[in-house]
Amino acid sequence: MFRKPWWKILSFVLLVYTCIAGFLITVPEPAGVPLQQTIRNLFFHVPMWFGMMVLFSVSAIYSIKYLSNPSLINDTNSFEFARTGTVLGLLGFTTGMIWANYQWGKPISGDPKQIGAAIAVLIYMAYFVLRGNIVDEKKARISAVYNIFAFCMLFPTIWIMPRLVESLHPGGLGSEGNPALKPADSNAAMKLVFWPAVIGWSLLATWITTLRIRLKLIEEREALPR
Amino acid sequence: MKRIISTFLLGFIFVASNAQTVAPTSLDIMKSNGKIYVVVAVVLTILIGLFAYVWNLDRKITKLENKS
């Protein structure tokens, strides 16, 4: 599956479509809403977070698989998916800061979803610190357990807490929509670009992850005595 | 069947005739002076460049895997 080209070509097609349609479709610009054309960030900033969720989910699944079947492949897969997922999370956070700087006035403004996302990514960074500091054969097992905990922490920090309090993101207390999208800010044409964008960016991130996994397995194979 | 298709097509004319009854947005301005296509070209160049790089990496790794 890692070597099949069809889903890589699909990712390329979807992202080319996203980058063309994303700039050329008409977006709603309701009066009084300061978002205007920046809503196009929906095709770039938001899929970073969706992609991160997908990759962290896969990573957590491989961690669970490792606990019942401790193999190098399960450990490598869970680690590399967590690594690329963290990259996506950092990209999502940085692009969010850029967007927020012009939209909300400051790059970091105490918005609950921003803080929640920062906490979630920091928890995953602790996973890498943990992995780097254990050297014996327990490393993979302890990392797998921590990975599952880190995955569970995504939900209160990013999905639940931002809906419970007032927030600059849509979907906070007293506002409509959810913390990713507000119905009034989008139209049917945008949805036609948004979901292919999510799939395209997730597939690209998966491709990069599989390259790292394959390289790691080659290194392990080379390290074995002949 | 022909009736359904021609009614459908006539419907498009109605929609098209409503194309510009609101004030032009910044996108319309960028489209009319062609600059939005510059943006698209830049983004596509970056995208294609990155994909070419990743594709090349993929082929190198495939060669390494097959070397055994």
Provide an overview of this structure.
The complex is a heterodimer of chains A (226) and B (68). Chain A has one domain (10-22, 36-214). Chain A is 70% helix and 0% strand. Chain A has 6 helices and no strands. Chain A is globular. The two termini of chain A are 27 Å apart. The mean pLDDT of chain A is 90. Chain B is 81% helix and 0% strand. The longest helix of chain B is centred in the last third of the chain and has 33 residues, at 35-67. Chain B is flat.
Which series of helices and strands of chain A comes N to C? HHHHHH
User: How large is the share of residues in beta strands of chain B?
Assistant: under 5%
Largest sheet of chain B: none
Largest interface: A-B, 22 and 21 residues
Bin the helical content of chain A. Answer: over 70%
Low-pLDDT segments, ≥5 res of chain A = none
The oligomeric state of the chains shown is: heterodimer
Spatial shape of chain B: flat
The topology string of helices and strands of chain B comes to: HHH
* Spatial separation of the terminal alpha carbons of chain A: 27 Å
Catalogue the unreliable spans of chain B: none
What value does the Rg of chain A take, in angstroms?
19 Å
What is the residue-averaged pLDDT of chain B? 80
Number of domains of chain A: 1
End-to-end gap of chain B = 62 Å
The largest β sheet of chain A comes out as: none
Overall outline of chain A: globular
Overall number of strands of chain B: 0
Integer average pLDDT of chain A? 90
